[in-house]
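Might I ask for a little of your time on a matter of protein folding? The record follows directly beneath this note:
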Amino acid sequence: MPLFCVVVAWIFFLLVKDHNISNLITTIPSGTAISITAGITAVAGGCMTSAFSTPDISRYCQSGKHVFWMTLISILIGEFIVNGISILIAHALDTDDVVTIMGQTAGWIGLLSVILSALKINDLNLYSSSLGIANAIEGVIGKKLSYSYLTIMLGILGTTLSVLGMLDRFVDFLVFLGVLFPPIIGVILIDYYMLKTSRKILDKTREKGLLPDDTSTPLIGWTAILACVIGSFVGATVELGIPSLNSLLVASIIYWVVSIFNKGSPQKT
């Protein structure tokens, strides 16, 4: 990744000499236009996906401050600086193909940086996805799967989807994530801050550095699943407003209301 950032900075430096930055900023993109709401939802999908995978990496940090600065610096450099420069470069060369941009402007070093960056990013993707799927399967059916097996299968699946043209529908994929993940975050926030489910049990086990046993906490939160499904459906089908916000609000409200009136739901402590 450092090599990729250096190459991007070098390409930007070369283009600055031949282009006016103000013109590049105000240039109308030549690609297919999307609505503001679709753009917000796509960005939300990417950001929330990163939010879910951040704990897999930040758990190696030594303190909360390290987590904060790691996250903040990643957002500032990755989202604003590198992506902002990349947009200007794409405008200057009138293409959104990363390989073309790197190959034409930086030669083999640019192509090498793309390959190494892709390997690094996909390593992290496989790491987070294999952990998430393994934990989900173990939590539901109690069977612990091999991380190596999951990593290989997910790698094959991802490569296959890429060959089939998944990247051509990447914006649609981000929009899909933008209505899929916000309900989950909404349910988590409502459960933790308002319903305070199993708060006493979690406080006690945290002091001991342990997780609650299966008998003290519900195995599957059907109310949460129902709220997430309805929230995602509303976000995907209702055109009024911002889809990601719609899905988050609907799931949060449904989960809160159903949990309050459900006799079997945990009560606020």
Summary: The two ends are 46 Å apart (CA to CA). The CA atoms of residues 37 and 239 lie 9 Å apart. DSSP finds eleven helices and no strands in the chain.
